[in-house]
Structures are given as structure tokens and as C-alpha cells.
Amino acid sequence: MTQRLITHLRHVDLAVPDFTTQLDFYSGIWGLTPEHTDTGLAFLAAEGSPEQYIVRLRQAAEKRIDLISFGAANADDVDTLAGQLAADGVQLVGEPDTLQTPGGGYGFRFFDNEGRTIEISSDVEVRQHRTIEEGESIPVRLSHVVLNSTDPEGTVAFYDKHLGFSLSDTLMHPRMGNMMWFLRTNAWHHSMAIARGPHASLHHASFEMRGVDEYMRGTGRLLRAGVEKIWGPGRHLAGNNTFSYFLDPQGNTVEYTTELEQLDEDTWHPHLYDISNPEVSDQWGTANAMNEFVAQKSFNDPDKGLFVAPPV
Question: Do residues 48 and 210 make contact, with C-beta atoms less than 8 angstroms apart?
């Protein structure tokens, strides 16, 4: 494992064929705030987050993950990471430079082992944000991103070796072996997870709510609006966080969650949890059963953006 120079998850950027419908969903019922929106490009902020935006939407012919962005403490750490990755043979999209996205900053992009575009940045201007009020059921921040992988062991090893991610817990199945790896880059139980899947794609993006009441209010609001629910509401064992999974209009899985565990990293030892035990998937026992329908929806469509850097 390399020295950990990544501090946190910043945003997830999605390319979508039906831009207007996606923008209406995320800026309306999902509860994000559009900022710096242009023709075919929208930056969506969470009212409770200092990040300039946590979701970027881009009009495109094909659905894909444009990139996943992580923060670093300063420009020196950005340069160090870029140098280490290049020396290890990782393909950089570009050298570190001034960013042309909202809030500016300094950063670079590279392809991970499966071809996803990853961005590392520092010195991005902080957005004016506010405390989310009691009963206000809108996202506070982007909690984590989960990726499907055809080589999950290799992908976990990549993020461990090159970016200093630490393993928090693993989910396994008695017949299928290890199925999901939870990775952290700070005290939060995970900011990324890697799931075994039939192709590389977005498994889900998760949004942290103020508390359990706000999480349930948000879940209920989406149900009343007829948004397709895949799984939940319930509470996972790994990470101890609540979950309600829905489909956005383009078929990406998005999650409302809250109370993700914060670890004492000096004393934490990863667990191996058996997901055939119902209490591992849902401690409360309130969610629909994890079945082939839920799994198929979370596999998503194959990512069309591998080893192709987004144009912006």
C-alpha cells in the first residue's frame, strides 16, 4: 500500500443521453441544487456540502461514468500522486494543471486498471453551504460510490497499491465467494466499494441524509412520486448505514443513506460477512429480500467510457 494522500470523495460525473430528464430528477425530487448549468452540462451541489458540486451531468450519445473525483490536501500531494502513478505505468489523461471546472483548483486525471477516468484535485474553492435543518429530506453530501468490476480483486489491489485505500470489510457468499469490498480513504467506513459484476459499470452512488428521520422522509417522498425502488428501506451490517435504493431515469442506481459508520482506523480489523445471512444485508429486516432482480438492476449497463477520457 502506498502512502494515503487522498482525503475524501468529491463528486461523480455521469454522461446521459436524456439530459433534461436527468437534470429534472436530480434537481427536483432527489434534492440537489443546480449550479453553473450550461447547455448540455449541469453541476449539482448538495446544500450541506462544501464541495462545489457532487454530481455532474453531461449530455452525450451514450450513457457512461465520465469520472469519479477525489480530493487531496494540497498541490504537492497532487504532484506526488501523479508522479507515482506515472512511474508505476498508470496511464495519465493529462499532467497536473489548473482545473477549468467550478471552483477551480489543481488536479489531474488518469485511467484506473479497468479504464475508468479518475480525477485527483486540491485547492478547489469551498462552496457556501448550510446546515440541513431537522426534517429536511435532501442530501447533505455524497457518501460513496460503488463500482461493478469483472476483476474486483485486481481493482481492489489497484486502489490499495496506487492510492492508499484501506479495506474496511468484505462481503462473501458461500457458493460465489467474495462479492464486495468496502474501501476507505478516511475514517468513514467506505467512500468506494468494488462489487463483482458481469462488466465494468456504476453499481450505485449514495447520498448521505441528515439523520434517520430525514432519510425515511426522503424515501417516502420518492415512493409517493412513483420513483422505482429497488431495495430498502433497511440497514446494512457492513458500515451500519441505512439504505434505500432507487433508479434514476437512465437506470443508474442511487441511494439515500445515513449514519455511515466512522472507524477508529488504528484499531479497526476488517470483517468477512456472509451475505446469505439476512441480517448482514439488512439488520432491521424491513427491506425486500436481496434477489436476482435487485442484483440485475445494480449491474447496470456496461460502461461505454472505459479508456476514453470525457471531453470536459
Answer: yes
Q: Are 102 and 35 in contact (CB under 8 A)?
A: yes
* Cis check: omega of the bond before 233, within 30 degrees of 0: yes
Q: Which candidate, 254, 238, 234, 263, places its Cα nearest to that of 182?
A: 238
CA angle 20–24–26, rounded 5-degree value: 115
- In order of their start, the domains of the chain are 6-122 (3.10.180.10), 141-299 (3.10.180.10)
Render pLDDT for 217-272 as a digit per residue (tens, 0 to 9): 999 999 999 999 999 999 999 999 999 999 999 999 999 999 999 999 999 999 99
Spell 147-183 as b/e; 16+ CB within 10 A means b.
Answer: bbbeebeebbebbbebbebbbbbbbbeeeeeebbbbb
Please give the pLDDT value at position 292.
Answer: 84
CA distance 140 to 133: 10
- The answer to whether 244 touches 233, Cβ cutoff 8 Å, is yes
Instruction: Give me the DSSP letters along the chain.
Output: -----EEEEEEEEEEES-HHHHHHHHHTTT--EEEEEETTEEEEE-TT-SSS-SEEEEE-SS-EEEEEEEEESSHHHHHHHHHHHHHTT--BSS-SEE--STT--EEEEEE-TTS-EEEEEE-PPPPP--PPPTT--S--EEEEEEEEESSHHHHHHHHHHHH--EEEEEEEETTTEEEEEEEESSSBS-SEEEEE-SSSEEEEEEEE-SSHHHHHHHHHHHHHTTPPEEEEEEE-STT--EEEEEE-TTS-EEEEE----B--TTT---EEEETTSHHHH-SSS-SPPP-HHHHHHHH-SPPTTTT-----
pLDDT in tens, 11-35: 999 999 999 999 999 999 999 999 9
pTM for the predicted model, two decimal places: 0.97
